Amino acid sequence: MSDLVRNVRSWFVPEEVRGEGSTPDYRFSLANERTFLAWLRTALALIGGGFAVDQFLPDLGRPWRLGLALALLGAGVLCALRAVNHWVRCERAMRRGEDLPVSRFPALLGLVIGAVAVVMVVVVMLGREG
Amino acid sequence: MTGPAGRPGRDPGLQPERTRLAWRRTTLSCTVAAVLAVRTALHHGSVSGYVVGPACCALWAAFLALAQVRIRALASAPAAGPRRLPARHAALAALGTVALAVCAAVLVV
């Protein structure tokens, strides 16, 4: 838990990160920045998906529509927060010359998106028949 | 090292350029999300729609400004390479995305 607090603190106190280890090649930092931006785009796409479920599936029952939209929005929030956390951790690891942090998050996100997609297909098909 | 443009120390991997385009792509994603948000707010039509719609526009403008600041920093890079992305900058971009999701939740519920 204290690890998390320390990470969140370093989002806003960048001097702490800069004080550690040595400055890596700027190209590595830029690659890390692009990975961060790619995750942010994923988050924005999930949020856009949440809006789309709400707007473009009007025939769906309200509980289903609300549930799917909130699931997508929640995934988007997690994705954005994780993006910045992972960026800080990678930046710190590069400064210290450590291995880059490993993460379960991509696998989890893949499973969640797969599950949401299956639910959406089933719900839309049933809605069309009924 | 001299690149085709004749600028000394130009990175042959075009890392700053690729990073600039990544910011552009992300701004485009933000625009799509913001357009969907405004559409939802207009359909909503209630008081919360009139509050949240402009809030989403403001978030989009803030993201655009953030991207612009970063792109300018990348373009005016010294020979040693551009300045690293400040952590505060990254945190603001992520928190703006979270705020957009909160606006979405208010509209959807």
TrEMBL record, chain A:
Keywords: Cell membrane, Membrane, Transmembrane, Transmembrane helix. Residues 27-93 form the DUF202 domain. The chain crosses the membrane at residues 36-57, 63-84, 105-127. Its main location: membrane. One of its GO terms (cellular component) is plasma membrane. It holds the Pfam family DUF202. It is found in: Cell membrane. This is Inner membrane protein. It comes from Streptomyces griseoaurantiacus M045.
Automatic annotation (TrEMBL), chain B:
Its main location: membrane. InterPro entries: DUF202. The chain crosses the membrane at residues 21-42, 48-69, 90-108. It comes from Streptomyces griseoaurantiacus M045. This is DUF202 domain-containing protein. Pfam families: DUF202. It is a multi-pass membrane protein. It is found in: Endomembrane system. Keywords: Membrane, Transmembrane, Transmembrane helix. Residues 11-75 form the DUF202 domain. It comes from the Bacteria. One of its GO terms (cellular component) is endomembrane system.
